[in-house]
Amino acid sequence: MTISNPPSAPTRRHCLALAAGAAATLVLPTAHAQAYPSRPIRIVVPYPPGGATDNIARIVGDKLGARLGQPAIIDNKGGAGGIVGTDAVAKAAPDGHTLLVALTTSMLTNQFLYENLPYNPQRDLALISQIAVAPVTLAVHPSVPASTMPELLKYIAANKGKLSYGSWGNGSYAHMAGAHMSQATGADMAHAAYKGEAAMIQDLIGGQIQMAFASALNSKPHADAGKLKLIGVTGARRMAILPDTPTILEQGLQDEVYQIVGFIGMAAPAKTPREIVQRLSSEVQSMFEAPDIVQRVASMGFTVSAGTPEAFAASYKRDMPVWGRMVKASGARLD
User: Fold this and answer.
1) Is residue 13 part of a domain?
2) pTM metric for this prediction
3) Fewer CB in a 10 Å sphere around the end CB: N or C, the chain?
4) Are the C-beta atoms of residues 166 and 204 closer than 8 Å to each other?
5) Sheet holding 190-193, edge to edge
6) Domain range spanning residue 191?
7) Is the Cα torsion angle 172, 176, 179, 181 positive or negative in sign?
8) How confident is the model at residue 34 (pLDDT cuts 50, 70, 90)?
9) What span, in angstroms and rounded, lies between the C-alpha atoms of 224 and 222?
10) pLDDT tens per residue, range 260-294
11) Residues 94, 301: Cα–Cα separation, whole Å
């Protein structure tokens, strides 16, 4: 009968090799995070070049590339009200190399406006950081005999069916806030939807429409030139670029429609590793603490609001039902 030799006891070298292998396995996720990014980062802006969101995205790209040691390339992927570019990010690999910088419309309100949206922002996007909030002005043609919000509402109510307001598109904040103003006063104002804000502003200056909610970036120069009058601004605080223009809230209107403001924010595909999301958020917060960047953002009519993913998620959750109610009240549908 053959007796097999018993297994030999593990050697010291063998034990050390096993321990080293186990340690390598344990540190692998951390090593992977430290290696990020391993190639250029693509920042998708779901709108054409030249707008405020694009300008802020380019600030992010310049600073982020320098901080992370890889180029950050801006990819303007416009179309369908921001859907095309946002959907591309939602379906990208969740490795932190494809990011989104977009407005409230793409990241929040589209889910209320479209029945068949190809992405679900709550399911398909990982919120990284809010970057800036975007209050807007309420501008009127100089022929409108009002300088305050109470005066304007009185004038609107007294001219039922005779006035019109503009917006930069169906389903935009300008559309929904104008519809609310018309409904609240029973004024039956006509809504004129434009393909972009520039065309809307030109018709407002020309008197084809009497009023519109508009960005400070586009309304302030014309107000300074006497071609428009600014009645107030949305949100809870006055805008740095318009310190003498009171908020609508200051003028006695408590409506949530006038208090809420849109945002520009950064997101990544869902399932992007938590450590990458946190690192990107930290970088965004740091870069937007610089006084020169804060001033550049303010000059566009925005207020820096960079913060943690948790803070972004909390404000998103708080504001989402308000936007939903605004869309429903306006009757806007874009399918």
Assistant:
1) no
2) 0.83
3) N
4) yes
5) 190-193, 164-167, 211-214, 137-140, 229-233
6) 138-259
7) negative
8) low
9) 5
10) 999 999 999 999 999 999 999 999 999 999 999 99
11) 33
